[in-house]
## 1
Amino acid sequence: MRRISRGFISPPGLHDQERAYIIKHEQVHIRRFDPIIKPVAYAVLCIHWFNPLVWLAFFLMSEDMEKSCDESVIRQLGSGIKQDYSFSLLALSTGRRFTYGSPLAFGESGTKGRIRNILHYRKPAFWVALLCIVGITAVSVGLLGNPRQQAEMTERDYAQQYIEANIASYQRAVPDLRFVGSTLTKFAKLGEFDHLLDTPVQLWALEYRLKPDNADKLMQLGNINIEDGMLTEDGSMGKPILVFSYQDSIPEYLGEIRSGENDMSRPAGQEIALRKFFEGKGMLPHETFSGNHILVKFILTTGETSQLLLSQPVKQGEQGIWTVERWMDTRGNEYYETPETEETLAAYYAGLQAGADAGTEQAWLDPLQVAVQYIRTELGQPVSRDNLVVDYEATAADFAIAPVSSFLGYVTGLAMDSDTLNLDQVEWLTLEDSDRFAALGISEEDLPGGFYILNKYKINDLYAVTAETEYKLIDRENPGSLQSVSKAEFIAYYEQFTGFAPPCMITVSNNTVNAVTEVYVP
């Protein structure tokens, strides 16, 4: 018959003293929350059943639990019970044939190891315990820290490297130049953007002063700024702004943006500057806003063809507002639109969209009205809707192709050993241009052949020619037709003219001449 004491069912033949040891042992388990910890650990084992290290960790944890509770009983009742306590464990294990029959049970195995641990157990000296506590604390502090982060460079470290790189650059340009001191006068975060890349991005403004051994040596560098005999960070494009991305709060230096190239005083300007920077590195697509795009081409008063890229920054479709996100001239120069606002781009356009939804900003829903207004106010060009060439199915890739412009003028400076030509642009007027005649003070008597070539300003514009440039002359044998010729034939043809030479029409894109064509003069 088993005896029951306060909920504990003891095996038959167990003495009162042995039962007291067992109860003490189990009370330690309860006080330490082992009945909760062990099932949680077992659940982890079930999930990671395929990992042998997890199995090993579970078994060692179970064994340590039992030995620790044994040691606690001995500390409470004294070392004199070691022999009796060991006999109790031995008596309980005698005749049992299973090993870890129940992985959640306590004290079911490892009897030999437990008895050996009990017999050799000694209460550690105070100084040993103290050393253990100190060691554990030191290890814990080390683990709580981030060694990788401590090993990585900080923003200020990168700033110092930037300064040292500039010092080296100046000394390469002026070999006998030496700097006797450097001072970091300003290094401050300008802004932070979380939506441009997969990681956060920050902008940091940098200012410094370099003390040369002889300020006069700096004069040969050119385009520098010296204050009180010290070289500053200023350049032709303004002050440096360092760009950092962050992975797990660790900065990575990506490069610099110059303050003079953008409006860095406002969030919208900072974001546009970063977009230009990342697009140039191929880290962002060549567009500010994804979704629908419209490409609008128009001709400037100078005769150049330019183009706008319109996008819907908030909402796509008929209810979404439109904005000019950037424009490009015929030389391939691209200009990003930065709205006049103290808000972020997202907040600014969200406000305009809300106004359109409420019926107060309806003009933003008409892309052509937006384009005309932009060309008139921002570019100062007279234009109407009828002057626009519109592609409603355009993509950002279409905009990346520079527009083609056609110019009429006199070509000079074209030679076989030259990769450029000069164009003295002219204006071809006919009797239909009566309003233009009036503005210029020209009468019909000045048009004996029905046309007038206006060469108001003799300014030669320089353009590049390549091996792909086409040359075309009027085919005299087939009136109204053109014939393609080589560069040498084209040059030889125009060299025969000692006085007036026929004008040419050149087509240009990206500042490169695509074709040079002779123009018929009656």
## 2
Amino acid sequence: MSEDPLFALAASHGPARQPSLLQGFPARAGTGPALAENNPVARVVIESPLPHLDRPFDYSVPAELDDAALPGVRVKVRFSGQELNGYVVDRVESSEGGHSLSPLLKVVSPVPVLPPPMLELASSVAARYAGTLSDVLRTAIPPRVARLEKLFLAGDPLGDDPVETPGVTVNPSAANPAHAAWASYTNGASYLRHLASGGSPRAVLTAMKGFGPTAWPELVASAVAAVRSSGRGAVVVVPDYRDLDRMEAALLTVLPAEDVARLTADDGPTPRYRSYLRLLSGSAKVAVGTRSAAYAPVQDLGLVACWDDGDDLHIDQRAPYAHTREILLLRSEQESAACLMAAHSRSTELQRLVDLAWAVPVEAPRSVVRANTPRVLSTADSFEQERDPLARIARLPGAAWRAAKEGLERGPVLVQVARAGYAPSLVCETCREPARCTHCQGPLAVAGQTAPPQCRWCSVPAPDWRCRSCGSVRLRKGASGVLRTAEELGRAFPGKPVVTSSGDQVKASVNDSHALVVATVGAEPVARGGYAAALLLDGNSLLRRENLRSGEDTLRRWFNAAALVRPADEGGLVVVTADDTTTAGALVRWDPAGYAARELSLRQELQLPPAVRIASVTGQRADVVHFTESLAKDIQLRTVGPAPVILAAVQRESPRSPGQDHEADVRTLFFIPYGQAAHATRTMRATKAASAAKRTSGPVQLRLDGVDVL
């Protein structure tokens, strides 16, 4: 694997070896404190976002701090006249700088929160994304809670530790429905056996069901139980708190409660740090959580697992914008751990892993798929068009209405819509021009049936709006949101309860009552016994987004919703409304792998991600040009730009006074073949650091593999 140029893993993207650098202010000769007898020099990584400070700095270790200043602990140091936090990454006998060193000021805590495997992983992630180690550690290591550290150092319970659940065994059982369900997947049973025997297999699982005892959380939990039976630990990462609750509950049915640690910032600093220390001490061997859990300090790691890698919640919104999938792939390589990437659909990145034979596909045969999935009907096919000529323009075609009516007789019916709110966009009734705010040019919307129009950006009401094109003062809804859809369906099906799930009112689950459940994409609740039917509305709106991945992402959202519906032999029916027969056809056939293979083939032909890597540089034109020219001295890449970032320019206008001059941001894109990726990312990282150190230009935003730039 280390010779594979298509992967930016630890072997090719590890941090460049740099000589130890002497920094800080030299102590006066003879006036400094007595130093430690053994290894009196500590190499410290300071917490700083500045790229030119992304390297270890040497400090002397006073004798009184000798026992506490071990690798991995938090310290305070003096740098450029300021006290900064940092981490000791090594203790050595001497510095190569040849100058006297500033001493460590303080050991903040003797707990080694940065173990060597995490340091190696964080360094590789920073190198892969051309970021700084400090930015990665900010995400990887939770904030300190002193009270918990005192308990940890004293060997006392950390408080609120889970109590062992009686009757729960670590060993996977063939009687477990989820364990047995693995056998219905091609390569599934052999994958579990390999895990249980201590091996490190790598698989891409295409799960069929999203509810019931053989749903995806139970499948992943069964794999974790298998690896735990071999005495090793596991890391499981999911996109959001609803998935986390389901995944944790599934794990607690096959593992002792004290063996599982939950890591998510949503729980607050104390529970998060408690779980981190439990994993660090080895009292818990399974970490489950959201993005930051990918760095969890699990001892003797045997498995890394990720659910739904196509969800953009897996992308950190702070520099260096790392993706959970790539972090886990790096970790799998560095710690020789098994890997499980699972989803209802398949991303093009995972398809590439399968094509390279790096991972084995675990998917059900067609006969099993037909027995476990609902029937899918597309209103765009020729038969439905002949029955209902207005199906293409109707938001609720006849087939969808019939499916909802019949489904409500058997159980709950799911309705997936694209937009939240009531009417999230308004247009002029006369000329159909989008209605814009007169203050900031933001889109107008209404929050309810009797609510006045107001701006979605600045929230300023617009009671006296007038169209700039035709002068009309009349507005109409350009699109219907989840609340408007729920209102219309309530009138169409009187007497049936309507439940909404969107925005900050997302529901994790609903009961099996005969109700209409209207939800935005990604906010669909789980029905315990599955939905009787599902209506996937607004497909054209999702597919027409100006994004390279609009089709792939839309299909992923459709599969996630359709997997919540009962099988066809139980009457389960999914109706999808979209004109794109290619994407809708993949759902009708229930063929996520075929769609991913076709999409990847097109990307390879056009040399677009993930066939190549992509880097975007955004900032003021002069700064972007300077970065591009500096980079071109060391490596030649296919380049597009600089071009104005229109959306960013509009957003920059909103807080400014009308007529105020400003320069819009521009963006340059670099397309990087995998064979050049290691050299290119090192060069970009060095170029950004050199520019910051010399102050030859202003700062630019550098992003690797951003999914929203194409």
## 3
Amino acid sequence: MNLRQRAARYARTKGRVLVRLGAWSVLEAGQTFLAGYALARALDAGFLAGDVRTGMFWLGSAGAAVVVGAVGTGRVYGVVSALVEPVRDRLVTGVVRRGVREADPGALSGLTQQVEIARDTLAGLVLVSRSFLFTAVGALIGLFSLDPLLLAVVLPPLLAGVALFAATLRPLARRQEAFLTADEALAEDLNAVGPGLRDITATGAEAQVAENLGRRLRAELRTARSLARWSPARVAALTLGGEVPVILLLVSAPWLLRRGVTPGALLGALTYVGQSLYPALQNLVHGLGTSGARLTVVLRRLIPPEKPAVEKAPRASGPSPEPQDAPALALSDLRFAYGPASEPVLHGLDLALPPGTHLAVVGPSGTGKSTLTALVAGLLTPDAGTLHLHGHPAPDATALRTLIPQEAYVHGGTLAENLTLHRPDPVPEDELLAAAEAVGLLPLLRKLGGPAAHVDPSALSAGERQLIALTRAYLSPAPLALLDEATCHLDAEAEERAERAFAARPGGTLVVVAHRMSSARRADLVLVLDGPRSVCGPHTELLASSPLYRDLMGDWAEVPDTRVG
């Protein structure tokens, strides 16, 4: 469904608001009608006829209409707010949903900038479009009331100007979108070049970077010139619809006067065109011509196209990765460094985890534990090597993984809304309570007042926020859970309970960046990160073969094995 169809569907749901908008606009348009009509009557029936009192009466009527119109204008702004703010709320909801559920990297920009652009621009467009429509209707009725010949002179060039302007809207929107895309691409490259100037110089990449930036600059220049070529068309539309009628009225004045048009009616017609039609058309051309094209571009980015409904065969609850025999996580010769001149954090790492494996990642500070989870989560891109989740390349496997970082995210709303953030469909309360019981959230859930209780994130401790985030991930349909020190604010007993719950999750695979070395004893496999000397194996084998692992374990090496069998 395209934007026009969505707009029509939304308008049908706002019928009462549109009726109120029309009613106040009619009141506002009354001053447009009287501006020319009262002036004509004041001149013809008043001052030219020697009746000053009648002339002053009509001028006073025009002044009173201005006051009444101002009341209508004030009411219009309130109604426009009722029309536009729900659109903003829907856009914010959509942006947040994609940002949280789909890990959309553009969500922050959409929420902080593009939504506000859409809200402000839409309000402006509603105002200028409504103003032109009711102003034009009021002026045209006034012209017909004064003399139909006046309407015959003014209407054809006005319609021609509006038609010419309408014909430019679609190509203008396409060129505006191309220009914004080129501008954003240039800004993205410039943002990347600035912090990396030292590395660029050190590696001798100045010429290559300059060539890339030059290509971006030339692309933006081409789109800017293409956009500028349409400016004369808008000027021509404004001239044809707003200035040509004045010229025609002046040129045809003798002919009009010979056919019974009064001097007052001619002056009223000039007033309609010069003070009402031309300013309204000018606002429409500048508003729709620039802001309208920009709004179209922003809405296309904020509102993804609706996908046709596809009937799917029923499937069992829980993750069902494809292909079934592929490793849950497969790394091959994975390499990553923070910058071209930096030492690699991960060196040719190889790893294959069967589905259902519980892996603990340990190592000294700075060896890449959090970097590894960020790569698996898709937050970073490897410099070399491959990374697959259940047979799918990492960039295409967003739905197959969920990351729980050290600083847990909890938003306002109900506890159930927080816990089911990753579930597209409603979650039965018994499933929600079972997950809370498994992870260890149940006491906090009861303390807060149940799933329907509203949550104040600032009133929760860091550990309580972590329990909520862990339960949310447990309820996620993603089969691979990444815990990056996600239990650091829990005591040892609560940490063990949460890890055991994830390890026992049907069809689930668990990767834990260990906060305590006891986590490694519970895992099926332990990955010891140590640069090119990284090793992976069961706890007992690593105790015998890896001096670094024995040093990391310390006194934990003598504790009986509590690994989940």
